[in-house]
Target: Glycosyltransferase RgtA/B/C/D-like domain-containing protein
Amino acid sequence: MRLAKIHFPEIIVDIFLVVFFSLVFALNLKININDQYLALSQSFLEGKLYFPDGYKEMDLVLYDSKHYWHQGPLPAVILMPFVFVFDIVGLNFKQGYLQFFISLGIFILCYKIARYFKFGGENSRYLAYAFCFASVFQFIAFFSVSWFFGQEISVFFMLLAIYIYLFYRKHFLTGVLLSLVLATRAFTILGLAFFVFDILYSKSSLKNKIRDLFYLLLPIGFAGVLLLIYNFVRFESFFETGYLINNPTLPVGDPLFGIRYLRNNFYTYFLKGLQVYILNNKQVVLGGITLNIPHLVAYPSTSFFVVSPVFFYLLKVKIKNKLVKSSLLASIIILLALLLFYYSGEDYQLGPRYLLDLLPFAFIMLLFSFRKQNVSTFAKTLIIFSSLFNLYLFIARMIGNAQMFV
Model:
């Protein structure tokens, strides 16, 4: 029987959703390391912009005898009421408590966006499942460390901005949500291009286009001014976020952006395969012969299409629809910026997580790659097996790290 003839009942994706979100919930409760945003929220409650004395975690920025955080401040601000309430009752709050609901919110938004484009309920769940678990996003959802926590929040607000824009065309509210993206992860704000292009491509009069752009950009500009002040108060410079002060992987004298990085970044993002290691002390005896067990692992990372193969369907997209054009242009801008940005490739991840900055727009194009809003049986199979393979890579990464291989 051909694969195309196999019937995939609707319950299959529901079962996998329950399993994977249960894993997200359990892992987010378990992990209690690299909680920089949590510590920073406590400092904000105390009226300070720097970390508490004695707090020691990775990537802290030392300036004027104080330790700061180089990422956007919004995730710490979001955590403040939770930390405040838990402190009152004598309990400790974890970033993972909130990250689970952010992951769930991202799934719901992807589902709603798919429904907007007339996909049925089952197909929409498969597509939203693909975004969350059959892509580079899976590893981020499993780990509530601060780098991933902030990136999840930026993806959530970008998807929410897309949702509000598509359903309601509320330009000012969309701008407010994009300002929250900017205050979380500055790089992700390049996705603003999607909305700007869509407004410019619209059939509205020039006067209405200018009005819509003004309402869209006003809150973003306001947030930008606040962030400049935030930088100046901490580092006595409007444009210093702390990233250049503390970037141990950047060779001394090398620029943060440059054409020199394009080739290696392209290889890392799109061509790098998996590594095969031999796991120490893990052997099997067959017929009296002792064999070392080969161990596939994404270390330090692997390419986008290894962990997100469903996005190969983007090759089928026809660039006719206005939203596809806007999504493509936004994706190109973000991708060019990422390819020219210094990237050591040593980040703790399974796939290139920085591509999450363009994933919401790749998702829109993915929706247009399926004819008549029908996700084929092959695509559904690919999505399920991709999520399971990513889970294997996650488990392999957890049971074996660089020190465990020879």
